[in-house]
Amino acid sequence: MLENFLADFKATLTSSPIVKDIEIDDEFITSVSGFLDCTVELIDGSTLYVTEYFTISGENIKHDKYSYHLQKKGEFIIRWDNAPHHRELSTFPYHVHNKDGVNESKEMTINEILDEISEKILPE
Known about the structure:
Distance between the termini: 37 Å
Helix content: 10-25%
Radius of gyration: 14 Å
Strand order of the largest sheet: 1-2-3-4-5-6-7
Number of strands: 7
Structural class: alpha+beta
Largest sheet: 7 strands, antiparallel
């Protein structure tokens, strides 16, 4: 189950039209958990740093910890994560950091991140 999840995750990155290159920095799979840390170069020259730690929860994959950090030319643009801080947000622990501060966010997946970046951040 986890092997398929990780393979699908990497296939999503590989097949995305906004992804230019992917470097797997670290990954592992055990019988109950997995981890992926990668650097994704996008077609506009920005870089998406992806960290995802996941476990099996019953018949589902649980995203225990994630961070999707986007920057361009060393300048921070946006980061979605579920670090357990910002308890004041109604979506705790899910939140998004941008230049305006920290805002509520739903739990995000790599598909949603790539869609969000292609729609709102990358130029047409």
